[in-house]
Every structure is written in C-alpha cells, then in structure tokens.
Amino acid sequence: MKTLLFFGDSLTAGYGLPTAQAYPSLIQEKLKAEGYEGYTVINAGISGDTTASGLYRLDRWLSAPIDVFVLALGANDGLRGIPARETSQNLQQIIDKVKHKHPDAQIILSGMEIPDIVPGRYAEEFRKLFRELAIKNNVAFVPFLLEGVAGMRHLNLPDGVHPNAEGQKLLARHTWAVLEGVLKQGM
To answer: Which residues pair with 107 in a beta bridge?
Structure first.
C-alpha cells in the first residue's frame, strides 16, 4: 500500500464541503479510475493553517509511511501578509523534515499566488518563492493550485475565497497533471 499525504489548509480540507468533494478525495477516485491500485490518500488539510502552524504540526504526520507528500500551504500566509521570506523558510523546513524522515518520498509543492492588486512587490515575491523552492529542492511543482478558480464567482463558495465542488475539481485536475507524472516515474 502506498500513501499520498496532502498537507495543506482549508483549500485541501475542502472548507464548507463534504470531505468527498475535497480535491484529495477526488484524487483518490482518479487513482482508482486510472488503475493505480494500492494507493491511499490522506487529507491532512486544516482550515486556517499557515506555513508556521503546518511546520508545528508536521511531526505527528511523519511517523506514518509516506510515498508522496503534497505540500499545499501558503495561502493564509499571503492573506495575512506574512513576509515572503518567512513563508519560504517555513516551507523549506517542512521539505527538509519530510526528506530527512522519508528520503524516498516524492514531494509535490503546490504554488500559491495573491492578486497583483496588493500594493508593492509583495505579490511578486510571494509568487516567486514557490517556484524558487521547487527548483532549489528539485521537487515536482503545481504552479498555481487555484489557477482558473481564484476570483471566479461560479467556482467558489459565497465567501469568494474557498472553492465550491466545481472549483475543487479544477484543483484536483491541476494536481493530477503533476501527480500522474510523479507516479509514472516511480513505477
């Protein structure tokens, strides 16, 4: 049995939706549909999680076997204006801990962006930090998890921030596009 751990925030948890509609559950369905037997998806998403709180809670997840670790944190850092350098350092520590405890695990980093309407260079720095981490650590990369979903009313809950069931399908599609390549490499 191979384990895929999705480590994220409300986007991963499927905020406001039944667990079965969150994108990690949709990935589990896709694995079965594509003939990837023996894969278990664990949704370790917690609403409100920042990279700092993710780093704090990471150790309890590392005691279990992990074959693929999907790191999808950072959206709340961006919303709270946490310095990009701090977000980057926290994500790097998470990656380091996963690599140390599970050296054979494949890691996928899901990128986040904040709107360019945010003044100053913050939006650009925030966007770049994910790509730079993916390159530095030689990990698979989903450029922007919310691509085509962010800002689209019909794909979000009434709060305008959290994807609805249709939006979660796009998150699953973006993730699958990268995950499938990772799984094929590992076979």
So the answer is: 69
Whether the Cβ atoms of residue 36 and residue 18 lie closer than 8 Å to each other: no
Report the length, in residues, of the chain. Answer: 187
Catalytic residue numbers, as ranges = 10, 159, 162
The domain total for the chain is 1
DSSP class of 91: H
Which residues, 6 or more positions from 159, have their beta carbon under 8 angstroms from its beta carbon? 16
At 130, which CATH number? 3.40.50.1110
Q: Domain range for residue 147?
A: 2-186
- How far, in Å, CA of 115 to CA of 120, rounded? 12
Helix, strand, or coil (residue 7) = strand
Handedness of CA 86, 89, 94, 97 (dihedral sign): negative
Dihedral angle, C-alpha 26, 27, 33, 38, nearest 10 °: -130
Contact between residue 69 and residue 98 where contact means Cβ atoms under 8 Å apart? yes
pLDDT digits (tens, 9 = 90+) for 90-107: 999 999 999 999 999 999
Q: In the structure encoding, which two tokens stand for residue 93, read together?
A: 């520590």
pLDDT at 187: 53
